[in-house]
Amino acid sequence: MDSPERSRWVPWALVLGAYVGSRLFYADLGLPLDDRSLAYFWQYLDLGQLRENLLEAVTYQHTQPPLYNLFLGLGLRADDPRRFFHAAAVAFGLVLHLGLFALMRRLRVRAWLAVLVAALFAWSPASILMELWIFYTYPVAALLVAAVALFHRGLSRERPGALLGALTLMALVVLTRSLFHLVWMAFAVAVSVAFSRRRRRALLVALVPLALASSVYLKNWAVFGRPEASTWMGFSLSRLVTTRAPRDLVLELRREGAVSELAASRPWLPLRRYPPRFRALPDDLPRVPVLTEPTRPGGHPNFNHGAYVPIARTFLDDARVILARSPETWWKSTQRAWQIHFLPIHDYTFFHEHRREAGPSMRAVERVYERLTGAHAFAAWDWGAPMPPFPERPAWAYAVVLGLALLHALGAVAVGRRSRAERATLLLAATTVAFVAVVGNSLEVGENNRFRFLSEPLSWCLIAVLLDRLLRALGRGARAIVPAWLPART
Fold first, then answer.
1. Per-residue DSSP letters for 449-463?
2. Tell me: the pLDDT tens digits for 61-87?
3. Given pLDDT bands bounded at 50, 70 and 90, which one contains residue 476?
4. CA torsion 103→106→107→111, rounded to 10°?
5. Which residues, listed in sequence order, are joined to residue 466 by a DSSP beta bridge?
6. Is 95 in contact with 142 (CB distance < 8 Å)?
7. How far is CA 287 from CA 26, 238, 280, 389, in A?
8. Side-chain half-sphere CA neighbours of 93 within 13 A
9. I need a labelling partner for 396 at 20 to 30 A (CA). Which of 40, 165, 223, 468 fits?
């Protein structure tokens, strides 16, 4: 193999080495595979049903798109589930970090900068904590990075296979995380068609992935009467509006009959906590365990019970009424959501225990990343003492840089100096980052920094593109200035 060929693979080896080195470092700190949430998280179906009636269970799931529970069921059926999930975590980690590097290079970020950014992401506490957590956030982030990188490949070389792969990965994202609405998928298809030189072929390629992404909406329409990926929008909007509205207003609307009696209740309560008339399973739903059992083993609520379908719709109707009467409540809630959105991602409730157990070395790494972004997390406590309250500071400096990166990406799309494939890829990446932030913070308050990780690799990529552009501009400026003051050669 000649030297140029070897040098082409050196950056990939460096990224891989950074990933492996970071995982060995965090393994030495004692960070474990985190499977604590499997038994009780609301997003998951009963583990017994996933083992014994997997296809039936995911078919009648209405709380979330079905793909991640299908993945869990396959893992639980493995001979060694922990080994299965750990191997899957490493596989997603490789896809995410190598995919991030590939995407930056495709957008013409210079190799050393792309290696540096990918390595920094690999060493970030958020990356390892998310990777070791059995939850859908990390796989979705990995699928998104791979999809956008393949998207560029498909358009740059007009390869229908790569474009089909990219759009299929996007469809898998839709089937995993309800935040990625079919509208987002349709936008991706529209971008691929608009920027392709063979638009008819691009549209034909998109039909199968688009149909795949639509399948969950069609299934829920047929079974539950609503074309939606999840029934929880009513619960989320209620937590954002109804539970934070002035109680006098809620009581007044209740007396007027404008809202239901559920307006006085909180979302996501065990079924027994709601009025009796709301607890019955609707007559038109099939009698299968995932829809009829009010609790799961251990006494945890089964939020996939069929009665929650009309309960969630009632919460949604009530929230809309209150939103119309008190829009300032929504505005105040979204302000808090944006603050949480830019807190350090490692500063998340379900990570606190493992961060503390990892010890001062973990906290030292966290502080480095917090200083880079201008943030402050909750975990700066004395490792030998009880954890006291601690002020958190959102990463506003990072938010400003990300905003500039988004504007630069959209400006590059508008100016048209880059290739079609680059402009399409920048447009898709920038709108995905904005979509996650705007939609997530408009409909949910509480775990918004967790949502941010979904698009965080794409955000780092866009920031790298901006930095590369600035470095190139500085280089051109230096070349223009240097000849003016250097003495002429004799």
1. HHHHTTTHHHHHHHH
2. 999 999 999 999 999 999 999 999 999
3. confident
4. 90
5. none
6. yes
7. 46, 28, 12, 47
8. 29
9. 468
